[in-house]
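Annex B. Sample input.
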Amino acid sequence: MGRSFANLHIKSKNFEKTVDALKKLSESHPKLLGENEVQETTVVMYVSKSNDWISVLHDYFVWGTVKKIGKTLSQLIEEPVMTAGYMNEEIFELSFFEKGDIQAERIFCEQWTRDEYEQLKEERLNDDYLRKALDIRNEDFDDLRRITSPEQAVDKLSELVKMSLWCNYEWIPYEEALRNRFEKRRF
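Annex B, continued. Sample output.
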């Protein structure tokens, strides 16, 4: 079993508006974040601002849950929400949501992985949307699109959007660079 991570990113210049949306998410959808609706709990997230992106880490973000959370968050904020899920060094799934709807998705993996996971298909292929949302040149996007290695796709995308996607809630205690980049927020 290999390395895994999941995170989400909001394309926004308004940090406080995004933090307000995260607060609404934690208050109105605690179950989605793995919290019990009956008990008063404090939701902890790590938030970082890089370029035009605001990155968010939470302990309930894993491949399979981060998309649902991104979809719901996109209903609470008027900005594109990108989710990234990387599983066992076999799959890198990149999804974009606006107003609660998936706008585009790309799954980077080898063909044998697609064959093994029979249900592994993009919900919505929309490369024009992806390229515009990521704000990358056509040539760079073509290079990214040809990649089948999940690790190489994460590295290339990190380079193109000028922020590392290699981040996960569980890594914060062990990686000083992440502790310096992310601010702990309680909701």
